[in-house]
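I have been asked to look over a protein record a colleague put together. This is what I was given:
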Amino acid sequence: MKKLLLPLRLAAVGALMLIAAACQSAPPANTNAAALWKKIEAQNADTGCDRDSQCHTIAVGAKACGGPERYIAWSDRAQDGAKLKQLVAQHAAARVEEDKRGHVLSNCMMAVDAGAVCRAGHCVQNAN
C-alpha cells in the first residue's frame, strides 16, 4: 500500500511546485504598456488652460503597421511636457514590443491630429 501512495505523493508535490512556479512567473507582457498608460494619465491629469495657446496634442501608442494609435490633448500651464513626452515614448516602445511578441495586426488607418483648444478651462482635442 505504501508503494502505491509514493507515486501519488510525488505527483502531488510536482503539481504543487508547478503551481507555485506559475504564481511567481512574470506578469503578462501588456502590463508594461498598461502601467505606462496609467502614468501618462496621471501626468496628464491637469489639462487646465486659460487660452488656446496653452493646449497641445501628443501622439500616443503605436500601431502594428506604424504610426500612433491616437492623439491626446495636454496643457503647458501645469507642465512643460518633458515628462509626458518621455512616458509617451516609453509607452510607444512597449506597445511595439508587445505587438511584435503577440503578432498583432492593426487596421493601419492613420490617426489624425486635429489639434487642441481650450474649452471651458480644459484642453481638449479640436472637433474639426
In short: The longest helix spans residues 2-23. The first strand starts at residue 55 and ends at 60. Strands lie at 55-60, 70-75, 116-119, 122-125.
